[in-house]
Amino acid sequence: MPIKLTNDQFLELAEKRNTILPPITPLEPYNGRHTKIMFECGKGHKYFTTPNNALRSDGCLICPGKGVKSHQQFLHELEVLNDTRTNKVFVVSGTYT
């Protein structure tokens, strides 16, 4: 069973996520990974989603067209995920396209 994060721990993970993906800001305190809270994207769109989905998604649910990641950006994202998920390690074989 995963350990419940504190609000500060969640905010720290959100900051890491924002270094590699379009930024989002939680507008409500974290209250568990499956409890929906409101987020705001860099363009000012506000939407509800679970913190778990927010950390794993490409960002705003309203903004269209997320773009395509470069191979280097994809590798950087895997590096961040490997740092934050202590029980899972992701390995790249080949080239991301």
* Poorly predicted parts: none
User: Widest sheet: strand order?
Assistant: 1-2-3
Intertermini distance: 34 Å
SS field, number of helical segments = 3
Q: What's the total number of strands?
A: 3
Rg over C-alpha atoms, rounded to the nearest angstrom = 14 Å
Proportion of residues in helical segments: 25-40%
Q: Which class of secondary structure composition applies to the elements?
A: alpha+beta
Main pleated-sheet profile? 3 strands, antiparallel
What is the mean pLDDT? Answer: 80
Shape estimate: globular
Order of helices and strands: HEEEHH
Per DSSP, what share of the residues sits in E-state strands of 2 or more residues? Answer: 5-15%
How does this model look, in words?
- The chain is α+β, with helices and mostly antiparallel strands and 97 residues long.
- The chain is 33% helix and 12% strand.
- The chain has helices spanning 7-18, 51-56, 71-84; strands spanning 24-26, 37-41, 46-49.
- It starts with 6 loop residues before the first helix and ends in a 13-residue tail after the last helix.
- The model has no long low-confidence stretch (mean pLDDT 80).
Set down the secondary structure blueprint:
Layout (H helix, E strand, L loop, with lengths): L6 H12 L5 E3 L10 E5 L4 E4 L1 H6 L14 H14 L13
Antiparallel strand pairs: 1-2, 2-3
